[in-house]
Design goal:
heterodimer; A: 213 residues; alpha/beta; Rossmann fold; five-stranded parallel sheet; 6 helices; B: 559 residues; MetI-like fold; 2 domains; 23 helices; 0% strand
């Protein structure tokens, strides 16, 4: 079981020789590791490194393991690491159902099975029956929940959250936060959360790492 | 692997034709062309060239045309943007003017000719009441010896182009905030813009301005339709020599093309001198702190200039359309006595082949250009940094080197390799001019795409191919089709490349229209020029309607 979860092993990221992040940390399934720091401190670069889309201007070393597999050299699409950004970024040219269908792994075969899984996923975030809707017609809170359902539908092995609640108003933020964390626990996903909001960190309940201070 | 081909193809396509073409022009200019018996280098072709009557007059005419066209159209655009930028009126005028960008030069020249000629719309409007003319007066308005109508024809066409490139550069200087800041210091709208914003906009549009100078100093189609004839501007005379059945004239034409190269280079150098003087003048005014707040006259003047230039083309296009369906139309009646579709029925049979060639060449060259441009951008994303300034200069190469100067040599190369007047050669020649526009107009939409969509899709386990075809391509469908429409309109409007590489055997609507100019049959010219106008417009209509239909259910995919 020691292999399970997300393992960040001696990761150091630098920009033009200046070190931004240096971290070794293990995140167990269902747990949240929160990275905090002022804006511009490079919190998101750590997330980008784990996700495999670090901008080439940064130089980085160190290894990343997801569920016991080293992913450091893998392409982002082979890492099975889901991402949520502060904007929901639903694909505007697909319906809500289409967004989820796109995320569903190929292994789920047969039209009926896929439709069934999408319906189930939407139900899980309290949006049952919205398959045919244009994402543009949803409210802000609904959009974030579809984004959550979409990332979960792709059955990731870890979840990266890049300030995902920062654009929501206070009430919606607490609700959405609760939903995201409970879903992650339910699916046994290790979560890496980047935020500058102390309330997010507190709600997450896990370890907190501060950078750039 | 495939993406690495993009930049290589682009660089090859932009440099090879220009480099080989220039070589193929310069060698015969110095007497070397073994195929025609020129085995020794010498200055004989230049001696013949300078013995031609009024050759220096032709060169001077070309030089002045380039400078005047660039100066007037750039000033109009600068003052208009200064005076009206950020207002609703500005947005309206912008929408009025931008369709003119896709209009072929030849079509706008015909439009102007049909408007201002002694038998044109303006004369008809005021005759005989104001003028007493019962028949078209014998005035040299079109083809005037000073080339004024030719310059006007170029200016009305370059204004939309320079306005568009200015608009593209504008957001980078954060105009709304800067305007407020400068106004708070008490500067007038125009002086504030010219002193405060223009200096950071101009460097970004400098290459397009040079392209305008290069084009105007060496233009052939507009000059043939509107320009002076005694003597004609340099490039027109060169093309006539080039097309002379007497092959030995090629030496003369090539020497002339080298002179053309010098004229264009001189025009750009003189312009750079103007830039320096302008900058010094600007600094002096700025350091004196002159606020120049009383600019309302200039503001309305700038607006009037834009409206007149756009209005002239629209009115001229209307006249073209009328002539194409005119039956009996006596002078000075404002409208034809009868409308008649027989003109079209008569012309249609001979229209079909040039139309088919126009469409085929435009489709293929646009398709190839867009694919190459996409490959370049994908490669750029992979590399993680944009190409340097050198790449941009490369992109402008076919637009900065006068067309005659390298097309002569390219034609020669195609003749020697036996591919002249083949479809492949014609498509290739068009591609050289379509590619820069495709790349430049795709640049901003491509970079504006939110990369996080890509990252999300990768997080969902999608590989690069899937991400490209399922996310990037559909989300960029609208700008990509708009880019294709631009490429299409560039190809439709190309005159000289078609004339020289098609060698009269492959003709398009544009070459046919210009060839008709000297004939003076207004009904037939009206039909061809009308087609020139319709084709780009149809391209843009398709580019607007298709994505709107495909994505009609998705609100965020609408404009």
């Amino acid at each position: 079981m020691t292999d399970a979860g997300l393992f960040i092993d001696g990761v150091t990221i630098a920009l033009e020789g200046r070190e931004i992040v240096s971290l070794t940390k293990r995140v167990a399934p269902g747990e949240v590791l929160t990275v905090m720091g002022p804006s511009g401190a490079g919190k998101s670069t750590l997330l980008a490194y784990v996700g495999g889309f670090l901008d080439p201007v940064f130089s980085a070393r160190g290894r990343v393991f997801v569920a016991g597999t080293e992913v450091t050299a893998l392409k982002p699409e082979d890492r099975h690491v889901g991402v949520l950004f502060q904007d929901p970024l639903l694909f505007p040219h697909m319906s809500v159902g289409g967004n989820l269908m796109f995320a569903l792994p190929e292994a789920v075969r047969g039209r009926a099975a896929r439709v069934e899984r999408v319906a189930h996923a939407l139900e899980g975030v309290g949006l049952a029956g919205l398959e045919a809707r244009d994402p543009a017609t949803l409210s802000g809170g609904q959009k974030s929940r579809v984004a959550l359902a979409r990332v979960l539908a792709s059955t990731p092995r870890a979840l990266l959250l890049d300030e995902p609640f920062s654009k929501l108003d206070a009430e919606l933020r607490a609700q959405t936060r609760e939903l995201v964390f409970s879903k992650a626990r339910e699916s046994g996903l290790p979560v890496l959360l980047v935020t500058h909001d102390a309330a997010d960190a507190e709600a997450a309940g896990g370890d907190i790492v501060r950078i750039g201070e | 692997m495939l993406t690495r081909l993009g930049p290589m193809l682009a660089i090859g396509l932009l440099t090879a034709p220009v480099a080989f073409g220039l070589a193929g022009t310069v060698l015969p200019a110095f007497g070397y062309l073994p195929a025609l018996g020129g085995m020794e280098f010498g200055l004989a072709p230049f001696a013949t060239l300078f013995a031609e009557p009024a050759i220096l007059m032709s060169a001077l005419m070309s030089l002045v045309t380039g400078l005047v066209t660039a100066a007037i159209s750039l000033t109009a655009v600068m003052l208009f943007t200064a005076a009206w930028g950020g207002t609703r009126l500005f947005a309206r005028i912008q929408h009025l003017i931008s369709p003119l960008l896709s209009l072929p030069h030849a079509a706008s020249a015909f439009a102007l000719a049909f408007l201002i000629a002694p038998s044109g719309m303006i004369a008809r409007l005021i005759s005989p009441e104001l003028t007493g003319w019962e028949r078209p007066p014998d005035l040299l308005i079109v083809h005037d010896p000073l080339g004024l109508s030719m310059m006007a024809g170029l200016i009305v066409k370059e204004i939309p182009f320079l306005l568009l490139v200015t608009l593209a550069a504008l957001p980078q200087v954060k105009p709304a905030r800067m305007r407020a800041l400068i106004a708070s210091m008490g500067y007038g709208r125009i002086s504030g813009f010219v002193l405060g914003l223009w200096p950071s906009i101009y460097p970004q549009i400098r290459l397009p301005v040079f392209a305008v100078i290069a084009f105007a100093t060496s233009v052939v189609d507009v000059a043939a339709i509107l320009g002076p004839t005694t003597p004609a501007p340099l490039a027109v005379r060169l093309v006539n020599w080039m097309n002379d059945p007497d092959l030995s004239m090629r030496f003369l034409a090539s020497a002339g093309a080298v002179l053309q190269l010098g004229v264009t280079a001189a025009a750009i150098l003189i312009w750079i001198g103007f830039e320096k003087i302008g900058a010094r003048l600007r600094d002096r005014v700025a350091c004196a702190g002159r606020r120049l707040r009383r600019d309302s006259g200039l503001r309305w003047g700038a607006l009037a200039a834009m409206l007149v230039s756009a209005g002239a083309i629209f009115a001229g296009l209307l006249a073209l359309g009328l002539w194409s369906v005119a039956g009996l139309w006596q002078y000075p009646d404002l409208l034809p006595a009868r409308f008649d579709l027989r003109n079209w029925m008569r012309v249609l049979p001979s229209l079909v082949e040039p139309l088919a060639i126009t469409l085929f060449v435009a489709f293929i060259s646009t398709l190839v250009a867009v694919v190459i441009a996409i490959l370049c951008f994908v490669r750029e994303d992979e590399m993680g940094y944009p190409p340097g300034r050198g790449a941009l200069a490369l992109l402008y190469m076919p637009l900065l080197v006068p067309q005659v100067a390298f097309l002569f040599g390219l034609q020669l190369l195609f003749i020697l390799t036996g591919v002249q007047a083949t479809m492949a050669a014609l498509v290739f020649a068009h591609l050289v001019f379509v590619l820069p526009y495709a790349y430049l107009s795709l640049k901003d939409p491509w970079r504006a795409f939110d990369r996080r969509y890509d990252q999300i899709a990768a997080g969902l386990g999608k590989g690069p191919v899937e991400r490209f075809f399922q996310i990037r391509l559909p989300m960029l469908a609208r700008p990509l089709l708009a880019v294709a429409a631009i490429g299409f309109s560039v190809s439709v409007g190309l005159y000289l490349p078609t004339l020289l590489i098609g060698a009269g055997r492959l003709t398009t609507i544009t070459t046919e229209a210009v060839a008709l100019a000297s004939g003076g049959n207004r009904r037939v010219i009206g039909i061809y020029a009308f087609m020139q106008m319709v084709l780009p417009a149809a391209g843009f209509a398709v580019a607007t309607i298709v994505p709107a239909l495909i994505f009609r259910r998705y609100r965020d995919m609408h404009v």
